[in-house]
Amino acid sequence: MLLLIAGTCLVAFVLLLYMLSPLISPKPLALPGAHVVVTGGSSGIGKCIAIECYKQGAFITLVARNEERLLQAKKEIEKHSINDKQVVLCISVDVSQDYSQVENVIKQAQEKLGPVDMLINCAGMAVSGKFEDVEVSTFEKLMSINYLGSVYPSRAVITTMKERRVGRIVFLSSQAGQVGLFGYTAYSPSKFAIKGLAEALQMEVKPYNVYVTVAYPPDTDTPGFAEENKTKPLETRLISETTSICAPEQVAKQIVKDAIQGNFNSSVGSDGYMLSSLTCGMSPVTSITEGLQQVVTMGLFRMISLFYLGSFDNIIRRCMIERTKYGTADKTA
User: Fold this and answer.
1) Which has the closest alpha carbon to 177: 193, 192, 196, 190?
2) Active-site hit among 54, 128, 147, 191
3) Which among 66, 30, 62 has a CA at the least distance from the CA of 47?
4) Which of 13, 105, 214, 302 could, after both became Cys, cross-link 198 (CB 3.0–4.6 A)?
């Protein structure tokens, strides 16, 4: 009898949630004619996002440090125009150093292409290494680029978005911003910080019809990833090899899709979905279905995650044993 009552209550609760779902689901953002600013847009995921938005009729402002790569990206993006009115504007600036410069850059972009409808924060970099081997300056550098490099552009567009009652802000975190991994003691914290910023900001701006998306891409085949691999510790590399490398175009399409819909989380693949559910915590949801899926899958995903963590520990332990063995051999010799 108690089971029947509990089941009935659960069904009634689910039906109520579905009835309320339209009240919390944002209206999709129309990209044709919209002004999209992409930081770190001269290569990798950022450039692919710019191309994807351009294909859908958006006007693009690319922001990055390297002018030569910016111009190359501009030419590549312009090949995908769908009408002769579209424009790709390039501005060279370091978004992590001086807020006043970033603010001026955003003002310039808005004077030329109109108010910013969507901001994509892709500027960032990864450096891996054992905690004691990483220079202290590297911790400061990564926090500046990966965290403040997202704070400054967002701060520069948020007032206008709130006044217009429309906008999207996308933050690029990482799967290493959902779970701390060997070799990422400098990188992971800078990406974990993004989630805290996004959750707090979303609570502030939601009443103004402005929505925040946090993207958690896996290892992606980009120039930055190739550069990181040159100095990646063996343990980190072996852990990374337990999952496949994604194409930047695939990641970009998913991010743009989630941003348009106003989804808070954006992930790719089954591992990404599992991590997003596991680490959702008090994160906002943009549909009741999403919330229910998280509730239902949490226990199962936690069991699976324990298997992953165990396998990672085994990798690290084996590497330590091998190093100890060869180190002893060297001393003996």
Assistant:
1) 192
2) 191
3) 62
4) 214
Question: Has 216 been annotated as catalytic?
Answer: no
Residues 113-141 have pLDDT tens digits of 999 999 999 999 999 999 999 999 999 99
Residues in contact with 32: Cβ distance below 8 Å, sequence separation at least 6, in sequence order: 56, 57, 58
Told to judge if 187 belongs to the known catalytic residues of this protein, a careful annotator would answer yes
Asked if residue 333 has pLDDT above 60, the reply is: no
For residue 331, is pLDDT > 50? no
From residue 91, alpha-carbon distances to 41, 71, 112, 171, 317 in Å are 10, 10, 12, 20, 47
Q: How far apart are CA 70 and CA 86, in angstroms?
A: 17
pLDDT digit string, tens, across residues 150-187: 999 999 999 999 999 999 999 999 999 999 999 999 99
Strands 118-121 and 35-39: parallel
Query: What predicted TM-score, i.e. pTM, was given to this entire model?
Result: 0.89
Q: Is 267 assigned a catalytic role? A: no
Going by the DSSP 8-state scheme, the letter that residue 132 receives in this structure is T
The catalytically annotated residue of 42, 173, 266, 277 is 173
